[in-house]
């Protein structure tokens, strides 16, 4: 059995060899690989690697798929692996997957290999490639977007976990008719990874924020103004933190932590929800810990986020709401430059099956140009 060698930018895709076993075992036994490749034995030994090279590669070819070693084109060192399987000949589609050893990460290896294999496969009979990633694997999601794949949806329970449960997977696809150019993002990353005015700092929510977010969103007054007004479960808190970057990459929401620059401590959260890109309208919402209320932090956070939104995205209208009794939140929005626009009756679900009215505010880019930011607390 022979396979065609594929050359990419800074990588070469070639057949696996017996002398790849040591590096293959090290790559598959790495904690990151073990997390996102739960079907692999744990621990993964050189004996497993020998069988993988001798049996798994051939079996994949026999089923219509392919497995390539990703190698350094200069040294021929093994960097990782890539291939496709689950071939449906009638639909001319397959599922692509890849891994990169810890010694070769953050060098663009996965992206280069994925672009090279996808271009080759989609010009030699296949017309659709699927790529599945875990929610908490934003690195792989970035690779997919950079290689011209489009986020298509979520496949529930698609991946068996190491325990008894199953995991939802995010589906990316690339068609033969796609350009292969990086997929544009509705919500780009923050410049330098944060926004700050010297008093508050906004940074992306992440897996390390579960304790803080649980405390914040469990406060009775925060629950009362949440939609719906129900305390989030620990699992919901965990999902929100671990999936935050995936939502950001999808362009649906950007969750941020508001930090006190002076202490570095989290003071609250603020989020951008881009639910209506067709009309270029997005919404913001925020919550603060009691110790940081009355210090102008949410006003500063709303202004920082608004400036970034209008400068870096295509959002044309930014809205926010507050229940009529929440005069403090309405004042925050007014000081941040928002204008009261509407009173929406029974818009929000309230406690025990009731409904609550919503006072809606709006901010336009021209408002900021006309009035300027007001960072006076």
Automatic annotation (TrEMBL):
Matches recorded under InterPro entries: Acyl_CoA_acyltransferase, GNAT_dom, Ribosomal_N-acetyltransferase
Annotated PROSITE patterns: GNAT
Record-annotated N-acetyltransferase domain positions: 11-177, 200-366
Protein name (database record): GNAT family N-acetyltransferase
């Amino acid at each position: 059995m022979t396979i065609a060698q594929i050359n990419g930018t800074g990588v070469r895709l070639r057949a696996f060899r017996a002398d790849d076993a040591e590096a293959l075992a090290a790559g598959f036994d790495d904690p990151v690989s073990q997390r996102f490749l739960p079907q692999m034995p744990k621990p993964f030994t050189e004996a497993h690697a020998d069988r993988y090279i001798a049996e798994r590669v051939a079996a994949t070819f026999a089923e219509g798929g392919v497995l390539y070693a990703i190698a350094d084109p200069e040294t021929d060192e093994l960097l990782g692996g890539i291939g496709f399987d689950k071939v449906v000949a009638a639909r001319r589609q397959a599922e692509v997957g890849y891994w990169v050893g810890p010694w070769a990460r953050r060098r663009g290896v996965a992206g280069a290999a994925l672009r090279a294999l996808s271009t080759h496969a989609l010009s030699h009979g296949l017309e659709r490639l699927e790529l599945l990633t875990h929610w908490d694997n934003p690195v792989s999601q970035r690779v997919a977007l950079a290689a011209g794949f489009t986020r298509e949806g979520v496949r529930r329970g698609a991946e068996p976990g190491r325990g008894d449960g199953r995991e939802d997977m995010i589906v990316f696809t690339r068609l033969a008719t796609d350009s292969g150019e990086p997929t544009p993002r509705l919500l780009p990353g923050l410049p330098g990874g944060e926004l700050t005015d010297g008093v508050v700092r906004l940074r992306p929510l992440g897996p390390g924020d579960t304790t803080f977010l649980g405390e914040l969103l469990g406060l009775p007054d925060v629950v009362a103004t949440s939609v719906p007004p129900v305390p989030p479960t620990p699992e919901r808190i965990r999902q929100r933190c671990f999936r935050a970057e995936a939502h950001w990459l999808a362009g649906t929401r950007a969750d941020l932590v508001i930090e006190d620059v002076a202490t570095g401590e989290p003071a609250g959260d603020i989020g951008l929800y881009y639910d209506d890109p067709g009309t270029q309208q997005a919404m913001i919402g925020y919550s603060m810990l009691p110790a940081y209320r009355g210090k102008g932090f949410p006003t500063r956070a709303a202004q920082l986020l608004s400036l970034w939104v209008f400068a870096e995205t295509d959002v044309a209208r930014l809205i926010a709401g507050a229940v009529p009794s929440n005069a403090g939140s309405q004042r925050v929005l007014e000081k941040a430059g928002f204008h009261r626009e509407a009173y929406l009756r029974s818009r929000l679900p309230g406690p025990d099956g009731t409904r609550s009215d919503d006072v809606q505010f709006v901010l336009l880019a021209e408002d900021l140009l006309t009035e300027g930011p007001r960072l006076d607390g």
